[in-house]
Amino acid sequence: ALLREANALDPSNTRAHRRLGELLLASGARRDAIEEFRAVTRNAPEDFTAWRQLATAQFAEGLYRDAADSYRRLVSLVGEQSAGSDDLLSYADALRLSGRADEARAIYQRLAGSSSDDVAGFARQRLAELAQAQPVPAQHPGEQAETQTPREGETASLTQPGASSQTAQAQPTPASQPTVQPTPARAAVASPAEHYQRGVELWSSNRAAAFQEFQEAAGGGNVDANYYLGLSYVEGKDMHSLNRAALGAALRHFQIAERGQFAAQSRRYAQQLEKEFDRLHKQ
Q1: Residue range 129-145: average pLDDT?
Q2: Burial class (CB within 10 angstroms; exposed 0-12, middle 13-18, buried 19+) of 175
Q3: What's the start-to-end Cα distance of the chain, in Å?
Q4: 62-120 per-position pLDDT tens digit
Q5: Which of 67, 179, 232, 263 lies 20 to 30 Å from 204, alpha-carbon distance?
């Protein structure tokens, strides 16, 4: 209440807006927190920490287009070469989830060459997901040849009047063509829900295989798969031991999972990760 009063008395009080936003975010009132962080960026447009807080909150709320714009501003302020890999991964994720795959791919490709194995691994994983999401349509055998190669006699008919009828008379009766066997139908591709169910079944016995299934499910839009992907980074581990890339990846998964059936658990993990993230940024 005191912070709201301070903001009402002095709307340009960035410190009060920031603190109120942090408190609202911790309480789960993310939409209100976003407005407070927006107020900070309006009053202090060069405050890159405020842009990071705003982008993180927008991403967690599913406002991926807004988050991408905020991350873009953050990266422009600190400089692309100086931007942290976690910020760039988050920026690329926001671009990807807002439908701007080409822009996201460019960032992932750059990060795939990172000296950090974790960062490079996450980037390559995202590139693979983008490749799977945009399959190249298969061409049926013989289609190109039939389209480009004219039948015998057709070429002559284009240049020699009457050649078509003469050629037709001279042609022997064609031999009967062998029956073309139909191409066997491809096995049906598993749906995101099926990948998710397989992941759940494998979770207790084969974590590596389960992780792959959950990646497929999440890439297809299954929200709950992100909860398990987040768990794979933090379960049984001390959060202080996680590097920034792992913290960022886990945080993004839990933020997405907050819109699914594991909302409460995901929110608790996300809050812990956000605190650890802030601690690292202040070092």
Answers
A1: 57
A2: exposed
A3: 31
A4: 889 999 999 999 999 988 888 888 889 889 999 998 999 999 999 999 999 888 887 88
A5: 263
CA proximity to 184, closest of 229, 140, 244: 140
Q: How far is it, in rounded angstroms, from Cα 94 to Cα 112?
A: 17
Percent of the chain exceeding pLDDT 70 equals 76
Domain ranges of the chain: 2-133, 192-282
Residue 173's Cβ-side half-sphere holds a number of Cα atoms within 13 Å equal to 1
Q: What fold does the segment set 192-282 form as a domain?
A: 1.25.40
Do 2-133 and 192-282 share a fold? yes
Count of CA atoms in the C-beta half-sphere (13 A) of 187: 2
Q: Specify whether the CB–CB gap between 257 and 230 falls below 8 A.
A: yes
pLDDT (0 to 100) of residue 191 = 85
CB 34 within 8 A of CB 54: yes
Hey, what are 162's tokens? 């009457």
- Asked whether 70 and 226 are in contact (CB, 8 A), the reply is no
What superfamily does domain 2-133 belong to in CATH?
Answer: Tetratricopeptide repeat domain (1.25.40.10)
CB 140 within 8 A of CB 154: no
Q: How far apart are alpha carbons 273 and 265 in whole angstroms? A: 13
pLDDT band at 5 (very low <50, low <70, confident <90, very high): low
